[in-house]
């Protein structure tokens, strides 16, 4: 009897799941077909948006767009002149921005600066984990400290920043955690072993955090993961060789991200086509996947003068520097605020 009852319950669960799923699919198709003017947009006015790595590249472009929508911007970076430049650009445009120098790889620095932001600016309502670095060399040629740095900046820091700001968002039942990951969070690329692993982790971070918030019944805090293909002129992948799929223009990417965040999309993939083709990788023979990836990105190394490491953040005086030692010392220079 007990067995029958539990079998009955399982069947009911499955049937219930199917019915609810059909409902959700129909709803999402209807939403898809609605003209975009009917779709709800997040009003960014009054939001306090913190952008890590906002002192250059994509972070700065997002800062300017959100400021124009009426949000107060908080820029975090290790590059002080970069921070000042972003703040200046936003203010010149009539927006509000505050800059803080913080090394997000340093947990204590994150917590301390977060307290400072809360006191001086207010409750952060949107956190954009944007800062990222790339080494771009064969695994065995990548020095240990750069591998460590890739993980510290690209993923471990997300834990500290999220732990710093999420509790407040939950209390106010209003917030948005945005993870800037990458297409490299879905496929492996040669010379990007550390980078890809950290981005896979970032994709997992977003998804598990979202499920966790849903399990806890927290409806007001959203998450979005952004997975762009290689982007031009952010200082990161400028010289990457990519065939067939053109590398993306940073302004287009920033526009798309802002739109995706305002629509509270869960996944923002660029180009969108990739979203509908990724699953193929689990179906076709590995040789095909490998052939495709190798031809698509013949060399992911961000070449510079001597094929060394490049950082997303320019040196203090704004000059881009490919010298390994230079970047590293620059990094340690800012370990302590
Ligand atoms: C900030 O959040 C706290 C709850 O964590 C709340 O008590 C306070 O009123 C909020 N401040 C503003 C300005 O909304
Ligand atoms: C920037 O710093 C680098 C290395 O410290 C130096 O070689 C270069 O001359 C500096 N450039 C400017 C414009 O100050
Ligand atoms: C890199 O920088 C270090 C110290 O600043 C210097 O000794 C070395 O010669 C530089 N190497 C290159 C290739 O510029």
From TrEMBL:
It comes from Nicrophorus vespilloides (Boreal carrion beetle). Belongs to the short-chain dehydrogenases/reductases (SDR) family. The gene is LOC108557786. InterPro entries: NAD(P)-bd_dom_sf, SDR_fam. Residues 302-323 are annotated as: Disordered. This is Epidermal retinol dehydrogenase 2. The chain crosses the membrane at residues 14-33. The keyword Membrane applies. The keyword Calcium does not apply. SUPFAM superfamilies: NAD(P)-binding Rossmann-fold domains. Keywords: Membrane, Transmembrane, Transmembrane helix. Residues 304-319 have a biased composition (Basic and acidic residues). Pfam families: adh_short (PF00106).
């Amino acid at each position: 009897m007990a067995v029958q009852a539990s079998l009955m319950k399982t069947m009911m669960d499955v049937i219930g799941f199917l019915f609810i799923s059909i409902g959700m699919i129909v709803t999402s198709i209807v939403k898809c077909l609605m003209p975009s003017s009917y779709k709800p947009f997040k009003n960014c006015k009054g939001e306090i948006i913190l952008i890590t790595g906002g002192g250059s590249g994509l972070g700065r472009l997002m800062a300017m767009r959100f400021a124009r929508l009426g949000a107060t911007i908080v820029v975090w970076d290790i590059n002080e002149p970069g921070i000042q430049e972003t703040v200046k650009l936003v203010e010149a445009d009539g927006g509000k921005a505050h800059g803080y120098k913080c090394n997000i790889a340093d947990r204590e620095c994150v917590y301390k600066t977060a307290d400072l932001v809360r006191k001086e600016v207010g409750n952060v309502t949107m956190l954009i984990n944007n800062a990222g670095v790339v080494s771009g060399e064969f695994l065995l040629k990548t020095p240990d400290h750069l591998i460590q740095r890739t993980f510290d900046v690209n993923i471990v820091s997300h834990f500290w920043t999220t732990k710093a700001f999420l509790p407040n968002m939950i209390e106010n039942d209003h917030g948005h955690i945005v993870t800037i990951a990458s297409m490299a969070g879905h496929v492996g690329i040669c010379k990007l072993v550390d980078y890809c692993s950290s981005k896979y982790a970032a994709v997992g971070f977003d998804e598990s955090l979202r499920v966790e918030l849903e399990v806890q019944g927290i409806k007001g805090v959203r998450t979005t993961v952004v997975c762009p293909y290689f982007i031009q002129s952010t200082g990161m992948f400028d010289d990457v060789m990519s065939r067939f799929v053109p590398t993306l223009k940073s302004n287009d990417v920033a526009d798309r991200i802002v739109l995706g965040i305002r629509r509270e999309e869960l996944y923002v993939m660029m180009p969108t086509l990739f979203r509908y083709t990724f699953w193929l990788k689990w179906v076709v023979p590995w040789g095909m996947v490998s052939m495709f990836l190798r031809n698509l990105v013949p060399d992911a190394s961000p070449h510079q003068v001597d094929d060394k490491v490049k950082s997303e953040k320019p040196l203090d005086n704004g000059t881009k520097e490919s010298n390994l030692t230079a970047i590293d010392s620059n990094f340690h220079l800012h370990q302590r605020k």
